[in-house]
Specification:
The chain has about 325 residues and is of the alpha+beta class. The protein contains nine helices and twelve strands. The protein has a domain of about 110 residues. α1 packs antiparallel against α2, α5 packs antiparallel against α9 and α7 packs antiparallel against α9.
Length: about 325
């Protein structure tokens, strides 16, 4: 499928150290942590030499074929890691500067050296148009002493001009491997860097902005501890879900009403019965987690591929689930 991890003759452009929140995206699994160099070699991410070439168009008429230059537009091209042939990835403007996969991984090497993080996953999506590398940080959080949260850094890059280089600090709830996204007051959990001539310098500055100071993690832990100590009623949970997903209009179509009813039933089932919330049930923390678990594991996706794979890919490449999670966090924190 065009949106899954890139493959060639049964081989995947991916490397995984262990089962993780993003594990649905790939097939290559190793038992130990790996290095940036191994990510480039074993994950088929090295030697792409992403570059720009002037864009031209060909007009075919009765008189023949005319080649026309497209002003200020360029094709991004890589060397295919399997065939070694040039391959077009996207169309960009004059100000776009490629950020190589090696630079991507080397930046994370700096984080590993300073913060003790270890490489966890790396892979190529959409036939090389997007690349992800994630790292597991050594520190875990135990909310209320019972709910373990691991911390991950996900670094995402696009070679087709569709998005900036993005760096995310993402807590992952181990019991159900769902990724958290909190709308915290003082600390940003993500940084975006445009593909410009000074992108390399900006990537270095992002290290300070995201912080291996763990300010984000510390604030997340403090707020989560408050949530786990707040009782949430069923009515309050319904209000939380409506603040995230809205209410269904009376004149909505039958299909819309059925979809909303299925969503509400799934959310209520998670809230009331899911084993993943057994130790925190009835708290504002459980209310937030029920919404996050629904988004990560049950929300509908339009896809021809495996739905679990599509949801995992969406976590890395789309802001839609993050916005919903932040709305759920705001609503839950408002009960404190």
């Amino acid at each position: 499928m065009s949106h899954e991890v890139e493959t060639h003759e049964g081989q995947a452009a991916a490397i995984f150290a262990r089962k993780s929140a993003w594990h649905q995206l790939g097939t290559t699994v190793r038992g130990v942590a790996f290095t940036a160099e191994e990510a480039m070699h074993l994950g088929r991410l090295g030697g792409w030499n992403v570059r720009k070439a002037p864009l031209t168009a060909s007009e075919v008429t009765e008189e023949g074929v005319t080649t026309i230059e497209v002003p200020d537009k360029f094709a991004t091209i890589r060397t295919n890691p399997w065939t070694n042939q040039p391959e077009a990835l996207g169309v960009v403007g004059a100000g776009y500067h490629p950020l190589q996969n090696e630079e991507h991984a080397e930046f994370l090497n700096l984080l590993a050296d300073e913060g003790g993080a270890i490489f966890d996953t790396a892979g190529s999506l959409r036939s090389g148009r997007q690349v992800f590398v994630t790292m597991a940080l050594p520190k875990s959080i135990h909310v209320g002493g019972v709910d373990r949260i691991d911390l991950n850094i996900a670094a995402l890059n696009s070679h087709d001009g569709t998005s900036a280089f993005r760096l995310l600090l993402t807590p992952v709830r181990v019991v159900c491997a769902n990724t958290q996204r909190a709308a915290l007051r003082h600390n940003a959990g993500s940084v975006s860097i445009r593909h410009t001539a000074n992108a390399k310098a900006a990537v270095q500055q992002a290290r300070e902005a995201l912080g291996l100071t763990f300010d984000y993690a510390a604030e997340f832990e403090a707020e989560a501890e408050k949530l786990i100590n707040i009782t949430m009623t069923e009515a309050a949970f319904v209000d939380l879900t409506r603040s995230v997903f809205g209410t269904t209009a009376q004149d909505a179509t039958g299909r819309t009403k059925r979809t909303a009813a299925e969503r509400d039933n799934a959310l209520m089932s998670l809230w009331a019965d899911a084993d993943t919330h057994a130790r925190v049930r009835g708290t504002a923390w459980a209310g937030y987690q029920s919404v996050v678990e629904y988004i990560d594991h049950y929300a509908p996706v339009r896809t021809k591929e495996d739905r679990a794979t599509a949801r995992a890919r969406r976590l890395l490449t789309s802001e839609e689930p993050n916005r919903a999670k932040e709305a759920a966090w705001r609503s839950a924190v408002a009960t404190i």
